[in-house]
């Protein structure tokens, strides 16, 4: 039996923050789903992804009697007749159209729920934290939360391999003779900034954390505390930007499309935006398999990809292309990202293995290769 959702408009919690419901021609329509047998999901608005907690396929007897067919069924649409006495199939909740949001449950991590979009494939927190709450957490708590290294030296050692690759890519896009700025959104302790300066480029960092901003300044970097709003409000910086870069920052943004729009407004025609971030394919695969095999178990860290409340949204490649199109940009290149190098041998070996598999698969099969935890995107103005 199909269960229709209430007729009220779709709320923000029902919608994918990346594609706002998938195909833009379907946004604003409504959805129904079938059944009620996965954890974190109930027959109701998507906010129930957070509140529902019943175990798989163990609803009330009334619910099961409503959702499971009784006895032999009539001929199916393809002409085959149901076998008499065959075991009744378990009803698994699924969306039957695309009209009331686009999110399906993935799992929980540290008390927060992740969902994935069945339209664009992106993974996000449900519900999304507010920008104001995240801004306060970054200012006051991020530097000691354990998500990021507590010391600049440890961070630089782990990320040296990754920073070098990103800085070399930027140098290939931004000639050293061009004295316009490379602006990094989310400087952290400043390790990437030092690599960029080392290649003869002009650098400006934007960092919301008070502690990290001060630490980066002490290392000789030009860093402003704040975000893109800080850049927009400084008239002295207008016309001085050539390249934007975000390294392991894009997944922290509540409104990624708005951030792209703000960067595009400042970017010159020949400029580039370089984004390195974890993408949705691997966490979506891991989450969906765990939901089938161990639905009550918490999602794994997955080398830091599932990290609430900091990692708000891991977009899919398709999702980034859609975000770019909505902001007048186009994805010029997609690359499998190199990994960091953790000090723990077991983690380092896992990172090396993941990087090897990702880059080899990407080289052979292109963007469709699913086992790539992180990607690098190069964006430019369309046309």
How many domains, in number, for the residues? 2
Report strand order across the widest sheet. 9-8-7-10-11-14-13
The mean pLDDT is 77
Q: Strand fraction band?
A: 15-25%
| Helix and strand run | EEHHEEEEHHEHEHEHEHEHEHEHE
What value does the Rg take, in angstroms? 23 Å
Q: What is the H level of CATH, i.e. the homologous superfamily of the largest domain? A: Vaccinia Virus protein VP39
Number of helices: 11
Structural class: alpha/beta
Note the gap between the termini: 49 Å
CATH architecture of the largest domain: 3-Layer(aba) Sandwich
| Shape label | globular
Fold-level CATH name of the largest domain: Rossmann fold
How would a textbook summarize the main sheet? Answer: 7 strands, mixed
Q: What's the CATH first level of the largest domain?
A: Alpha Beta
Q: Percent helix among the residues?
A: 25-40%
Q: Would you report the number of β strands?
A: 14
Low-confidence stretches: 1-10, 22-100
Features:
four-stranded antiparallel sheet, seven-stranded mixed sheet, 19% strand, disordered N terminus, Rossmann fold, 32% helix, 2 domains
Q: What features would you describe in this structure?
A:
- With 383 residues, the chain is of the alpha/beta class.
- It folds into two domains: 12-53 and 96-128 and 280-308, no CATH class; 135-278 and 315-381, Vaccinia Virus protein VP39 (Rossmann fold, 3-Layer(aba) Sandwich).
- 32% of the residues lie in helices and 19% in strands.
- The protein has eleven helices and 14 strands.
- The protein has helices spanning 48-51, 61-67, 131-140, 152-173, 191-198, 210-218, 228-233, 256-266, 281-293, 317-326, 345-365; strands spanning 2-4, 32-34, 94-95, 103-109, 112-117, 123-126, 181-185, 202-207, 223-225, 241-247, 272-278, 313-314, 329-336, 374-381.
- α5 links the parallel β7 and β8 (202-207).
- The protein is globular, with a radius of gyration of 23 Å.
- Mean pLDDT is 77; it is low at 1-10 and 22-100.
């Amino acid at each position: 039996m199909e269960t229709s959702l209430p007729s009220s408009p779709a709320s923000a919690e029902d919608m994918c923050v990346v594609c706002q419901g998938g195909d833009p021609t379907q946004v604003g329509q409504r959805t129904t789903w079938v059944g009620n047998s996965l954890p974190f999901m109930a027959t109701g608005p998507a906010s129930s992804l957070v509140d529902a907690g019943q175990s798989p396929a163990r609803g009330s007897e009334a619910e099961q009697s409503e959702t499971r067919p009784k006895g032999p069924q009539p001929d199916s649409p393809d002409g085959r007749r149901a076998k008499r006495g065959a075991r009744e199939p378990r009803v698994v909740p699924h969306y039957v159209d695309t009209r009331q949001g686009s999110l399906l449950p993935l799992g929980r991590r540290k008390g927060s729920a992740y969902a994935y979009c069945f339209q664009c494939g992106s993974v996000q927190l449900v519900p999304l934290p507010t920008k104001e709450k995240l801004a306060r957490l970054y200012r006051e708590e991020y530097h000691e939360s354990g998500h990021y290294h507590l010391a600049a030296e440890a961070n630089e050692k782990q990320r040296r391999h990754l920073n070098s690759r990103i800085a070399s890519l930027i140098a290939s896009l931004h000639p050293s003779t061009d004295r316009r700025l490379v602006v990094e959104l989310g400087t952290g302790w400043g390790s990437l900034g030092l690599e960029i300066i080392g290649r003869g480029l002009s650098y400006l960092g934007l960092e919301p954390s008070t502690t990290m901003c001060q630490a980066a300044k002490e290392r000789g970097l030009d860093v402003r505390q704040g975000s893109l709003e800080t850049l927009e409000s400084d008239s002295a910086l207008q016309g001085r930007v050539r390249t934007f870069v975000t390294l392991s920052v894009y997944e922290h943004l509540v409104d990624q499309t708005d951030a792209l729009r703000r960067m595009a407004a400042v970017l010159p025609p020949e400029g580039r935006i370089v984004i390195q971030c974890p993408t949705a394919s691997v966490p979506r695969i891991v989450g969906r398999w765990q939901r089938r095999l161990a639905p009550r178990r918490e999602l794994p860290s997955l080398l830091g990809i599932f990290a609430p409340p900091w990692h708000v949204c891991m977009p899919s490649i398709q999702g980034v292309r859609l975000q770019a199109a909505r902001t007048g940009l186009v994805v010029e290149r997609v690359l499998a990202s190199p990994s960091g190098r953790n000090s723990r041998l077991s983690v380092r070996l896992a990172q090396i293995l993941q990087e090897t598999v990702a880059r080899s698969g990407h080289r052979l099969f292109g963007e469709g290769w699913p086992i790539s935890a992180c990607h690098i995107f190069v964006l430019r103005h369309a046309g």
